[in-house]
C-alpha cells in the first residue's frame, strides 16, 4: 500500500495533464456535428488504457457512438471488477455563462474547470490511473475490465445490444461505477441508489401558421398559453405530480430509512445561499434530501415557441414545444411512466390545439444491496483513505443502464463516486476538485484489495 | 376620372415592378443588423415620392430609423391629406416555413409574396402611385403629404418627438392610413377602430445557474414550471383576463353595435378550416368578431428557457422568458395596463423564483368618428370602385401612433385598408393580392376627389 501512495505522489502532475488532454476533446454525444470528436475521444480512451498497462483495448463501433472495452487479466482465478464509465459529455450551452471555454480546461483554486471534468471523464479516468498504479507497483489483486461508452448522456441507446451480445467478454464479479457525488471530503458518502428516467418532448400545435396577434389574438387558442396550462396542471398545490397512477409503483421508504436520511448533514440555509434562492420547493411532506433521493419528480428541461429574438414581434405562434423528464424510484417502470405521461398529455390537450409527444430516452431506477461484498469493500476502502465510515445516501441522478447490467450480467453495481453536488454537472463551469480526483485514485486500489480479500 | 383609369391601366406592370424592388430591401426594424437596409429603404421611398411627382421629399434621421417626409402642394387653398405609412417590416422568421425567400418577391396565382407585401410597403405604395396618377393626369384635387416611418413594427419610439417638433410641416385636414384589411373584395369594409397595445417581456429566475435535474430536480423551483403557472393563471376558466382592474376602463359596446357586428359576414367553419383548428377559443359570451374587435386580449408572443436544442439535456434551468402583449380597446390606457400587467406578474411570482418584467412598447386604441367628412369620403370612394357600401368594422390590430396624431395634430384618422386577414401579416408567406393592390390605387383618387368636394 505504501508503494501505491509513493507511486501516485510522484505522478500527480502527469495524472492531471493526461486528464486535461482528454477534456479538450468536445465529445458531445447529443450533437451530430461532434461525431468525429466522439471517435477521436474513443481512440484517446483506448490509448490511455493500453498506456496504463491493459493487456488489450478495443473500440467497438455501434449504430451510434463507439464503445471502448479494455482489460487486464492478471490471473483468471482472481475476482474480476468491471468498471463502467462514459467518455461522452452533456452539451456545454449556454456558452455565455462559462468563465472559460468548456473544452479549454483551466485549473483554478485547486479545481479543474471543463465540460466532463467530473461527469464522467475525470471520474472514470481515476480508475485508469488506479489500474496503472496497481500494475506498475505489482500489486493488482484482481482482474480489471473497462467498459467506457459514448452515449450515457443520451440514454445509452446502443449499450443494451452490446451487453447482450458480449456477456462472456463482460463476465465479472461486480460492477464499479464512479459517476456520482459524495457529500464532501469531510463527510464521505456512498450512493446506494440512482433514480430512473423518462425523458420526452412535447409539441403543441394551434393554427396551421403563425398569425398576427392583433388580427387573431383572443379568438384562436395560443399554443404557448395552452402548453403553459398543461404544464401548470402537472403538479397540484402540494407539488405532487397529478398524472393518475404516477405514484402507484413507488416503494415508500420506511420510518427507519427516513430517520437515517434526516441524520445526513444538510444545512438548508447554506443550500439556498449556494443556489441563490429564497425558498426551497417540492413535494409537501418530504425534506429536500428525500425529494431528490427517494421521491420521483417531473421537471421541465426546456421550452420554446413563438418569437424569441430581440425586440417585439406581435405573433400568435403556430407551435410551442417542451422537453419534460421524470426521475423515477423503485419500483417505477420507465416505459410504463413514459406511456402514462404521454397519454396524460394527449388527454389534457385543450380544444383548439393538437398535441404530439414522444420519448427521448429512459432508464430504470436501481438500488445497491448494502449487505453485498462490493458495498462492504467500497465502504472499507473509503474508511481507509478518508478516516471515517461513508454515509449511505440515495442520489438523485440516473445511470440508465444499471437495471440492464443486473439483468443481463447478473452483477451488483457499486456507486463509488468522488464528485460533489456543487460540481456544476450539466451546467456551465463544470469542475472537479483535484483533491477529490487524487483521493479517488488513492481509494480505488483499496477497493480492489478488500474486494479480493472478502471473497 | 376616365383619365385616371386609362393612365393606371397602362402602368400596371411598372406599378408592380416598382413595388417588387421595394420589397427586396430587408427593412426589418427590430434587428440591429438591418440598420443599413433601413437607410437604403428610406432612400428608395424618398426617390419613389420624387419620381411620382412630389415637390420635395426629405429623409429625417431619428435616434432610431429615419423618417421619410414628402409633399405635393398643388394649391395652398385646397384641403390637405396626410398619408401615414411605414416602410419597416416584421422579422421574417421562422424562415423554414416560407415557400420562397421573404425578400425575394414572387408573383404566383395573382398574389405577390414577400415580407411587407401588404404590411405596409404594398399598402403605402398604393398612395404613391395614386398621387402619380393624379399629378400626371392633371387632376389632383388636394394637397398631399406623406409621412412614412421606419419604426411602426417596434412601436414608433421616435415618431412622437418628430410629430411634436414638426406640427406646421404636418399640418393637414385629415390623416389617411392604409395599414388594415377589408373583409374581401366582394365585401368591402372600413376599419373604424384599431386596438391599443401593451407589449412586455418577462424573465423568471430560479437558481443562480443551470442545475442537474437529477441532483436538484424536485427540490428547487423550476423557472419554466413557475412561468407556466403564472401564464396559466392569467386567464380564468371563461378565458377572461384575471389581472385585477384590467377591464375597468373598457367601454362596453351597446346592443346596437353588437347587432351590426353580428350581421357582418363570418363563417366559423370556413374560419376554422382556413386556420386548421378544430375549435375557436376566447372570452365567453362574445363572438369571434367581437373577440378580435371590441374586446381586449392577452397573448403569449414567445417563450423560451432551458435546453431547446437537439436531443435531451437533463437540466433544471436558471431562467425562463416570455414575451406577452395585450390588445386594448377604448378607453383602456396603454401605460396603465402595462403597469398593471407588470405589477401583477411581480405579485404572482411563486416563492423560489424572482421575476423581472419590462415594457417593449405600447400604443393607445383609436376610434374613427363615422360622421366625419373623412370617413364619408372614404365610404363613397369605396362605393364608387367596388359598387357597394363598405361595412364598418372594428379591426384587431394596432397602429400605436394614432392617438398621438389626434392629440398633437388635432386630426381625425381614416383607415382605408385594402389587405385581407388571410395576407399572413407577421407570418411566413406574407402576400398581397394584386387585385387588391390595383383596386387600392384606383380607389384612392376618388377619396381625394370626394374629400375635396365635401369641404
TrEMBL record, chains A, B:
User: What name does the UniProt record give this protein?
Assistant: Putative dipeptidase
The molecular function terms in GO held by this entry are: metal ion binding; peptidase activity
One biological process term from GO is: proteolysis
**According to the lineage, what is the superkingdom?**
Bacteria
Q: Report the source organism.
A: Flavihumibacter petaseus NBRC 106054
Q: Does the keyword rRNA-binding apply?
A: no
Keywords of the record, alphabetical order, are: Hydrolase, Metal-binding, Protease
Q: Which InterPro entries match?
A: Cyt/Met_Dipeptidase, Peptidase_M20, Peptidase_M20_dimer
PANTHER family assigned to the protein according to its UniProt record, in alphabetical order: BETA-ALA-HIS DIPEPTIDASE (PTHR43270), SUCCINYL-DIAMINOPIMELATE DESUCCINYLASE (PTHR43270:SF12)
Instruction: List, alphabetically, the SUPFAM superfamilies matched.
Output: Zn-dependent exopeptidases
Is the keyword Protease assigned to this protein? yes
Looking up Pfam families in the UniProt record yields: M20_dimer, Peptidase_M20
Every copy of the Peptidase M20 dimerisation domain together lies at: 193-351
Amino acid at each position: 500500500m505504501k508503494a501505491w501512495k509513493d507511486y501516485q505522489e510522484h505522478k500527480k502532475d502527469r495524472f492531471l495533464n493526461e486528464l486535461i488532454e482528454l477534456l479538450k476533446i468536445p465529445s458531445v454525444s447529443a450533437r451530430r456535428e461532434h461525431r468525429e470528436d466522439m471517435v477521436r475521444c474513443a481512440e484517446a480512451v483506448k490509448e490511455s488504457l493500453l498506456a496504463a498497462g491493459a493487456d488489450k483495448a478495443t473500440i467497438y463501433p455501434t449504430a451510434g457512438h463507439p464503445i471502448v472495452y479494455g482489460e487486464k487479466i492478471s490471473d483468471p482465478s482472481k475476482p474480476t471488477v468491471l468498471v463502467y464509465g462514459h467518455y461522452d459529455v452533456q452539451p456545454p450551452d449556454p456558452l455565455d455563462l462559462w468563465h472559460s471555454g468548456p473544452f479549454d480546461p483551466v485549473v483554478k483554486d485547486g479545481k479543474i474547470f471543463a465540460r466532463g471534468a467530473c461527469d464522467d471523464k475525470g471520474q472514470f479516468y481515476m480508475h485508469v490511473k488506479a489500474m496503472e498504479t496497481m500494475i506498475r507497483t505489482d500489486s493488482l489483486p484482481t482482474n480489471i475490465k473497462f467498459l467506457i461508452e459514448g452515449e450515457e448522456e443520451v440514454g445509452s441507446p446502443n449499450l443494451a445490444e452490446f451487453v447482450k451480445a458480449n456477456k462472456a467478454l463482460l463476465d465479472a464479479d461486480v460492477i464499479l461505477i464512479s459517476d456520482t457525488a459524495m457529500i464532501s471530503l469531510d463527510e464521505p458518502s456512498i450512493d446506494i441508489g440512482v433514480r430512473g428516467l423518462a425523458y420526452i418532448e412535447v409539441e403543441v400545435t394551434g393554427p396551421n401558421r403563425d398569425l398576427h396577434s392583433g388580427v387573431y389574438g383572443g379568438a384562436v387558442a395560443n399554443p404557448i398559453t395552452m402548453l403553459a396550462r398543461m404544464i401548470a396542471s402537472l403538479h397540484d398545490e402540494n407539488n405532487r405530480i397529478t398524472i393518475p397512477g404516477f405514484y402507484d409503483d413507488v416503494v415508500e421508504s420506511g420510518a427507519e430509512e427516513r430517520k437515517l436520511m434526516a441524520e445526513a448533514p444538510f444545512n438548508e440555509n447554506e443550500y439556498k445561499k449556494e443556489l441563490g434562492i429564497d425558498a426551497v420547493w417540492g413535494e409537501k411532506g418530504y425534506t429536500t434530501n428525500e425529494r431528490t433521493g427517494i421521491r420521483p419528480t417531473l421537471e421541465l428541461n426546456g421550452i420554446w415557441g413563438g418569437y424569441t429574438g430581440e425586440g417585439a414581434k406581435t405573433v400568435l405562434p403556430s407551435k410551442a414545444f417542451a422537453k419534460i423528464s421524470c426521475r423515477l424510484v423503485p419500483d417505477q417502470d420507465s416505459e410504463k411512466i413514459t406511456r402514462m405521461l404521454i397519454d396524460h398529455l394527449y388527454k389534457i390537450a385543450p380544444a383548439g390545439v393538437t398535441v404530439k409527444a414522444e420519448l427521448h430516452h429512459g432508464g430504470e431506477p436501481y438500488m445497491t444491496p448494502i449487505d453485498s461484498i462490493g458495498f462492504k469493500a467500497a465502504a472499507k476502502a473509503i474508511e481507509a483513505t478518508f478516516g471515517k465510515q461513508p454515509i449511505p445516501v440515495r442520489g438523485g441522478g440516473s445511470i440508465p443502464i444499471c437495471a440492464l447490467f443486473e439483468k443481463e450480467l447478473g452483477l451488483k453495481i457499486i456507486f463509488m463516486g468522488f464528485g460533489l453536488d456543487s460540481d456544476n454537472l450539466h451546467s456551465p463551469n463544470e469542475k472537479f476538485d483535484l483533491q477529490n480526483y487524487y483521493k479517488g485514485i488513492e481509494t480505488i486500489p483499496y477497493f480492489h484489495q478488500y474486494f479480493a480479500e472478502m471473497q
